[in-house]
């Protein structure tokens, strides 16, 4: 008689518990709804491509048969665009963060990270032998206390724009502290790419601080409307990652079609700023349209990510469902992704949203929360 599977019982129990708590995740397919949830801030993903890749696959990892002149050309082009010495493309932002943080520090080193840092960075840090601890979100006093406790090579992980609250990091203040304690900054520019700075070069370039940042991660899966990511830094960092990053070494390279899409999006950024200006205009309109009733639930943000606190998983899910039935694709962010009591509606503003769509969406939210 085969032994009973205890792992199956464990899986069922955990799913049942999550369902009871109202935070069971489910995949959704949206048809014809007004987009207030995607990361496609500039609408690049909707652009029809004219390129025709010669092959559909890359045949292997870049160290085996998957490398190409196109890879090298695009990495150089993107590095120049973001004013970096060199860059290495990874298959996604998650893949890039796992690949960087898992190999960059040794057990004698310290990684300090903002408590609101993205899950991909947390997962990368878990794979690292280095000591690690968090500091209070955007709190430089908290960061300094942790810097005083650090040893070895010190790395500080922050994001330009935080994905849950949509707020911006205190980059200048954090850089001043890091210089004081001889620490290096790793900056995730995922939600700043294509949105912040001239031609969407990101926060570091906007503040002219790119030469003071050890590594920058630019994701292509958000405003760039495609897939993949690049880690920017020195030529030595690029060579190090090629040799020590398992997430790079042991994965099949992106296809030619994916590379062409990345290149196409960067050409779009270089050619004009109209969509970026329209996005900023829509963000301003959203903020100015928030009623007095909603302001007490609103998390202040100047980015594409706007949030209205709801409180409670069930209420957040119910509000999400009603909004979708009314034609607005707004998503609820529930515990455990955010802290209990901080459950919210996360509204992503795009360059292609009309003022009428934004206004009506807010009116519906106000009605449902009153």
Topology:
Layout: H1 6-20, E1 34-35, H2 69-81, E2 86-90, H3 93-101, E3 110-114, H4 119-126, E4 131-135, H5 140-149, E5 154-159, H6 171-180, E6 183-188, H7 203-206, E7 215-219, E8 229-233, H8 235-244, H9 246-249, H10 256-271, H11 274-289, H12 292-295, E9 298-299, E10 305-309, H13 313-325, E11 328-329, E12 331-333, E13 344-348, H14 355-369
Parallel strand pairs: 1-11, 3-4, 3-5, 5-6, 6-7
Antiparallel strand pairs: 2-8, 7-8, 9-10, 10-13, 12-13
Helix pairs in contact: 2-10, 3-4, 5-6, 11-14
Features:
single chain, alpha/beta, Aspartate Aminotransferase, domain 1, Aspartate Aminotransferase, domain 2, 2 domains, 4-stranded antiparallel sheet, 15% strand
- State the share of residues found in helices, binned by percent: 25-40%
User: In which order are the strands of the major sheet placed?
Assistant: 2-8-7-6-5-3-4
The CATH homology group name of the largest domain:
Type I PLP-dependent aspartate aminotransferase-like (Major domain)
Listing every helix as H and every strand as E from the N terminus to the C terminus, the arrangement reads: HEHEHEHEHEHEHEEHHHHHEEHEEEH
The structural domain count equals 2
């Amino acid at each position: 008689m085969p032994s009973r599977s205890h792992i199956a019982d464990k899986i069922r129990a955990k799913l049942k518990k999550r369902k009871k708590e109202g935070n069971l995740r489910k995949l959704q397919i949206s048809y014809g709804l007004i987009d207030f949830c995607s990361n496609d801030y500039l609408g690049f993903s909707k652009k029809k491509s004219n390129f025709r890749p010669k092959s559909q696959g890359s045949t292997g990892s870049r160290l085996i048969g998957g490398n190409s002149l196109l890879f090298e050309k695009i990495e150089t082009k993107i590095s120049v665009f973001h004013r970096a010495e060199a860059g290495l493309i990874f298959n996604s932002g998650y893949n890039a963060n796992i690949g960087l943080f898992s190999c960059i520090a040794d057990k004698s080193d310290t990684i300090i990270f903002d408590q609101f840092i993205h899950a991909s960075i947390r997962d990368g840090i878990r794979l690292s032998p280095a000591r690690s601890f968090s500091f209070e979100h955007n709190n430089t006093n908290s960061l300094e206390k942790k810097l005083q406790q650090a040893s070895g090579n010190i790395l500080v992980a922050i994001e330009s724009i935080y994905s849950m609250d949509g707020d911006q990091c205190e980059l200048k203040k954090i850089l001043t502290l890091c210089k004081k304690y001889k620490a290096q900054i790793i900056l995730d520019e995922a939600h700043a790419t294509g949105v912040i700075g001239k031609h969407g070069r990101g926060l570091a370039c906007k503040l002219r601080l790119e030469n003071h940042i050890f590594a920058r991660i630019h994701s292509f899966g958000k405003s760039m409307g495609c897939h993949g990511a690049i880690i920017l830094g020195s030529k030595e960092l690029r060579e190090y990652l090629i040799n020590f990053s398992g997430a790079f070494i042991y994965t099949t390279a992106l296809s030619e079609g994916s590379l062409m899409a990345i290149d196409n999006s960067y050409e779009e950024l270089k050619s004009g700023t109209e969509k970026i200006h329209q996005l900023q205009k829509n963000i301003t309109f959203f903020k100015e349209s928030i009623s007095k009733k909603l302001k007490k639930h609103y998390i202040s943000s100047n980015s594409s990510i706007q949030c209205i606190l709801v409180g409670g998983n069930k209420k957040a899910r119910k509000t999400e469902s009603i909004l979708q039935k009314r034609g607005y694709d707004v998503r609820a962010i529930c515990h455990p992704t955010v802290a209990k009591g901080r459950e919210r509606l996360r509204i992503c503003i795009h360059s292609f949203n009309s003022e009428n769509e934004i206004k009506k969406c807010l009116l519906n939210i106000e009605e449902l929360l009153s």
